[in-house]
Design goal:
This protein has 6 helices and 48 strands. The protein is elongated. It starts with 86 loop residues before the first strand and ends with a strand. Among the domains are: 236 residues, no CATH class; 102 residues, Jelly Rolls, CATH 2.60.120. 7% of the residues lie in helices and 41% in strands. It is mostly beta strands and 629 residues long. An 8-stranded antiparallel beta sheet has the order 21-22-23-44-43-45-41-42. The longest helix is centred in the last third of the chain and has 10 residues.
C-alpha cells in the first residue's frame, strides 16, 4: 500500500489546495488530417444578395477557432448554497426573448453564464486555456486576438463573465426573478450559401454584423437560430436552391430567424464557428466533427479531446484529466436514486441530482428490470455487489487500485452451520441465496418466478415466506432479507429466532479497505501491461469483439485520473476492447478499466454531455461523480 507521502488526495474526502494540472503528452500518433479540409478552398453554389467573397484559404479559421456543437442541458438546478447575500442566481436565460435552461450568476460587477450557454446559445468558441480563472473566447474575431472572460466554478458549473462582451458589442442584461434577460443587437442575414466538401457539407450565413447564434440538433437536422432578420432575396434563394444542392428551411421568428439544415449522415454532427471581415456564421456538417480541446476547466481538472489512432482507425477521444497535486476534488460513486439501487436515468440527470461537477457512466445493468449488474460500494456499504470476478476500481484514504474482484460471503448460524451467499444487492441471479439490504430499497420484489424470503433483523431471523409473481416484501431498516432461489437447503435451518452473521472475504484482500468501489470490466491495463481477457471475466465472445463507443477510467504514473469516452471513427466503426486498451495506454494509463459502453457511454461536465448529444445517450444505473468545493 502507498506510504502517507504518496497518498492520492483526489480520492480523499478532505479538501486540499490546488496547483496547475500537468499536461499529458501525446504518446500515439494524432490524426490531424481530419481537419485539413478546413484550410482548403471551398466552392459554393448558393445565391447571394451581395457579392460575398468565397470562403477560401485566406478566410479560413485556424484549428483553434473552429467551434463544436454542445448539447443543450436539461433544466439546471442551481444549488441553494448559491443564494447568498448580494449574489443573484437563476437557471433560465432569455436571449432576445428566446428562453433556454442555463444557470447564471450575478455577483459584484460580473454576470456569469454557465460556459455551455456561450457555446450552445450564443455561438461563441471556447479556446484552449491554462488558466482556470481566465477563459479566452473567439466570436467574430481571430483566435490570435481573443476576448478574455473571467471564470469561476461554483455549484458544479463554470461561469464565464459576460460583461466584456456586453461592453464590446452593445449587449444589455437585466434580472427578472430566476431569468436573466440578455438583449443583443439584431442584424440582417444577407446571404445563405452551401457547398459540398469531401468531409460533408458547409453552410455559410453572411450577416451584417456580429450575430448571436444558437444551434440545436434533432435526428437528421440541425437548426441555427440567429438574432437576425432575413432579406426577401435570402428567402427566395432558399426556396429555389440550385440543382443538386441540399435544401435548407428558413423560418422567420420575430427579430430572429431559424435556419434548419439537413444532416444526411447519421455519424455527422454540426460544427459552428464565426468569421469576420466580412461577418459570417459557418456551419459544417461533418463526420469528423471533433475539435481538439485543451482547457483547464477548474483547478486540478482539465478537459481534453482529440483524435487518436488505434487499429488503423481515427478515434475521437474525450477525457477529463484530474490532477493529483493539491486537488480540491473528490470522487464518489453515484447512482439513479440515493434511496434505492434500482432504476436508471440519463447520466446528465443523475449528475445534477447529486450536484456533481463532472461524471462518467460506470457499471453494467439489466436494461429490462433496471437492476445493477456489478460492484457499487459507497462508504463501505454495498449498493450492489461484484459479480463474476470482473474488473473494478477501488479508492479511498488517498489510495487507488484496479483489479478483478470476487466477494465471498457466507451466512453463519449460531450453531455453526454455513451457507454461501451468491451475491449482494444484485440483479445477477443464479440458483442459491441472494442478500438484499436497505441499500436495495425499502422493498424487494422476486426476480425469479418463485422465491422463499427469509427476513433478518438485528442478526436474528424473524420470519420466512414464499413470494411469487408481483408480490413484494419489506426490507427491514435494521436488517436484510435472504432470497432463496431453487435452493431449499437453508430453509429448515433459518427458522424464527435463529441467530445469524455474515462473513465477507475479498479476493484480492487488498481491495477490502477501499470504502468506494465501482465495477465494470474487462480490466484493460494492470501495472503498465495490457491484461485484457474478456473470457476470464465471463463476457461473451460477441461483446469481446464488438466495435462500439466505450467508457473507461485510467490511472497514470504521476497519479492523474482519466475519465475517458471513446466514440465511433469518422468512417463509422467504434473501438474494440483491444483498441480501447491501446488508447488508454497512449493516454499514459498504467492501470485502466473498461466501463459500460455503447449508448451508455456518457461523459458529463458542468451541465452538459461533452462526448455526445443527449438524445443519443441511454439511461444508466450508476456512475462515478467528481465533486468540487
Amino acid at each position: 500500500m502507498p506510504t502517507p507521502s504518496s497518498l492520492h488526495p483526489i480520492f480523499q474526502e478532505s479538501r486540499f489546495s490546488m496547483t496547475l494540472l500537468p499536461r499529458i503528452g501525446l504518446h500515439g500518433p494524432l490524426l490531424t488530417s481530419l481537419f485539413l479540409g478546413l484550410t482548403a478552398p471551398a466552392i459554393f453554389h448558393g445565391a447571394a444578395t451581395a457579392a460575398a467573397p468565397a470562403l477560401g484559404a485566406d478566410a479560413m479559421p485556424s484549428e483553434a477557432e473552429v467551434d463544436w456543437e454542445m448539447p443543450a442541458a436539461t433544466l439546471a438546478q442551481v444549488p441553494d448554497s448559491l443564494a447568498q447575500a448580494g449574489v443573484a442566481t437563476g437557471n433560465r436565460v432569455s436571449v432576445n426573448g428566446i428562453g433556454v435552461a442555463v444557470p447564471w450568476m450575478q455577483r459584484q460587477n460580473q454576470i456569469g453564464l454557465a460556459d455551455y450557454g456561450l457555446t450552445d446559445h450564443l455561438g461563441i468558441t471556447l479556446l484552449n486555456s491554462n488558466d482556470a480563472q481566465r477563459q479566452p473566447v473567439q466570436w467574430f474575431s481571430s483566435a490570435q486576438t481573443p476576448t478574455f472572460l473571467s471564470a469561476w466554478v461554483q455549484g458544479g458549473y463554470r461561469y464565464l463573465d459576460l460583461v466584456p462582451l456586453q461592453t464590446n458589442h452593445g449587449w444589455s442584461a437585466t434580472v427578472q426573478g430566476q431569468t436573466l434577460n440578455v438583449t443583443v443587437p439584431t442584424t440582417q442575414i444577407t446571404a445563405l450559401r452551401s457547398g459540398n466538401q469531401p468531409w460533408g457539407q458547409r453552410w455559410v450565413i453572411d450577416v451584417s454584423g456580429p450575430t448571436v447564434a444558437q444551434i440545436t440538433e434533432t435526428a437528421g437536422a440541425a437548426t441555427v437560430t440567429l438574432a437576425a432578420t432575413a432579406t426577401a432575396a435570402v428567402a427566395q434563394s432558399v426556396a429555389r436552391p440550385p440543382s443538386g444542392q441540399t435544401p435548407a428551411q428558413i423560418t422567420p421568428a420575430g427579430q430572429s430567424t431559424q435556419i434548419t439544415l439537413p444532416i444526411p449522415n447519421a455519424n455527422a454532427r454540426p460544427v459552428l464557428f464565426t468569421l469576420t471581415n466580412p461577418h459570417r456564421v459557418v456551419v459544417d456538417i461533418r463526420t469528423d466533427h471533433l475539435r481538439p480541446v485543451d482547457i483547464l476547466w477548474a483547478p486540478g481538472l482539465r478537459w481534453r479531446q482529440q483524435y487518436f489512432m488505434a487499429g488503423n482507425k481515427a478515434l475521437p477521444v474525450y477525457w477529463l484529466q484530474l490532477s493529483h497535486r493539491e486537488a480540491q476534488t473528490a470522487l464518489r460513486p453515484i447512482w439513479t436514486d440515493p434511496t434505492t439501487a434500482t432504476g436508471t436515468a440519463p447520466l446528465q440527470t443523475m449528475a445534477q441530482r447529486w450536484q456533481a461537477a463532472a461524471a462518467i457512466n460506470a457499471g453494467f445493468f439489466n436494461r429490462n428490470n433496471q437492476y445493477p449488474l456489478g460492484a457499487v460500494r459507497y462508504n463501505n456499504d454495498w449498493i450492489s455487489g461484484p459479480i463474476l470476478g470482473r474488473g473494478v476500481v477501488g479508492w479511498g484514504n488517498g489510495q487507488v487500485q484496479m483489479d478483478r474482484l470476487a466477494l465471498r460471503q457466507t451466512l453463519r448460524t449460531g450453531n455453526g452451520q454455513t451457507f454461501p451467499i451468491q451475491a449482494v444487492n444484485s440483479g445477477y441471479v443464479q440458483a442459491g441465496m441472494g442478500l438484499y439490504t436497505p441499500a436495495w430499497g425499502s422493498t424487494y420484489r422476486p426476480i425469479t418466478e418463485a422465491e422463499r424470503i427469509v427476513t433478518v433483523r438485528n442478526q436474528q431471523v424473524v420470519g420466512q415466506q414464499s413470494v411469487t409473481g408481483d408480490g413484494s416484501v419489506p426490507i427491514p431498516p435494521d436488517g436484510y432479507i435472504l432470497a432463496l432461489r431453487a435452493y431449499d437447503t437453508p430453509a429448515p435451518v433459518l427458522v424464527s429466532g435463529t441467530a445469524v452473521t455474515i462473513q465477507s472475504d475479498f479476493l484480492p484482500a487488498s481491495l477490502a479497505p477501499f470504502p468506494h468501489i465501482v465495477g465494470g470490466g474487462p480490466l484493460l491495463i494492470r501495472n503498465r501491461g495490457i491484461v485484457l481477457d474478456a473470457a476470464l471475466e465471463q463476457f461473451g465472445s460477441a461483446f469481446a469483439s464488438q466495435a462500439a463507443p466505450r467508457s473507461a477510467i485510467g490511472y497514470t504514473a504521476n497519479g492523474d485520473i482519466l475519465l475517458v469516452a471513446i466514440h465511433n471513427s469518422p468512417t463509422g466503426a467504434g473501438p474494440t476492447l483491444a483498441e480501447t486498451a491501446q488508447v488508454m495506454a497512449q493516454l499514459g494509463s498504467i492501470d485502466a478499466l473498461n466501463l459500460d459502453g455503447g449508448s451508455s457511454a456518457s461523459l458529463y461536465l458542468g451541465g452538459r454531455l461533452i462526448n455526445r448529444h443527449p438524445r443519443t445517450a441511454a439511461r444508466v444505473n450508476n456512475g462515478i461523480g467528481l465533486f468540487l468545493p
